[in-house]
Amino acid sequence: MNKGPFSNMASTGSDPSASWLGEADRMLGLLHEGFPAIQDMDAVDARAAVAARARPVENIDDVRSAEDRRIADGLRVRIYRPWSEPQGETPAILFLHGGGFVFCSIESHDGFCRRVSKNTSSVVVSVDYRLAPEHRAPAAAEDAYLALTWLSDNAAELGLDRNRILVAGDSAGGNLAAVACLMARDRGSAMPLGQVLIYPVIAPDFQTESYRSYATGYFNTRAAMQWYWCHYLGGEKLPEPAEYAAPLWAATHSGLPPALVYTAGRDPLCSEGEQYATALRAAGVPVRHRNFPDLFHGFATIPGFGPAEGALKVLWRDIDGFLGLQKEVSA
After folding, report:
1. CATH number at residue 296
2. Annotated catalytic residue within 97, 253, 289, 297
3. In which domain, by residue range, is 36 found?
4. Is 29 domain-assigned?
5. Which of 41, 87, 158, 308 has its CA 20 to 30 A from that of 239?
6. Per the residue annotation, which of 267, 294, 318, 320 is the catalytic one?
7. Does 297 qualify as catalytic in the annotation?
8. Which of 269, 296, 227 is nearest to 50 (CA)?
9. Which tens digit of pLDDT belongs to each residue from 289-317?
10. Catalytic residue among 171, 289, 294, 320
11. 314 in a structural domain
């Protein structure tokens, strides 16, 4: 099997932010104390509580343009174009936002998508997928797959390199990115060059080592995760096939694209991210897994958070390697 950009890479990386532990602890405490107890709310109230915490986007000028477009079935995407684009056709990153399948949107992750586009010289396409509980599994994953196939089919019109498309997501969006790859494989569609999974939600197993160690007190909690999964599934039953909601439980992971998997050490989801990296690797899929032991769920999208900057610079470099780009990466 062609190992592509992963043929000579180690499976795990070290945490570049260890010296920021004090600041990380302070931010973690603030987030944990200030985040609403969504497990005690209905979806509408939870969305309002989370939206009320939103900060204005302060990096509008990171990209040359941001255009909203309606694609198949009225699905909305936002297309970010960087100031600096490589020679020839531009690589693209399809991005799926986090939010427990229940809240957040392309607006909540607007600033992060601008940073991704700026720092990777890629066109970023952010997907406004349907949310639970109004739209249960696998509705959001079907939207992710629809956007992926649309992006591949329309790459030439958009001035993009059809052979250099990554699918990426954080948290619940990491789940959707992984499932979109499974759907593309199963349905014989064009496969992305790779998948970038940032502290992904992988399976509703609340008894893993990291769930036992970080069930509460670390911002993202077991109770919150159970609430997310309950809303997404509409109970405890998974759809058929089960892997279209819980990608870890696929019968086989062979034939999937190479993966970058990022986990945070102080996160209930850490173990399942590690498990997915292991499952992919066992199936012959090239994987680079990086764990940042002092960081916690959500670190990548906190504006101005110093301890995350080292991790993000690693992410930009890893994506550059994936896409075959050689350049200096800005902060």
Report:
1. 3.40.50.1820
2. 297
3. 4-323
4. yes
5. 41
6. 267
7. yes
8. 227
9. 999 999 999 999 999 899 999 999 999 99
10. 171
11. yes
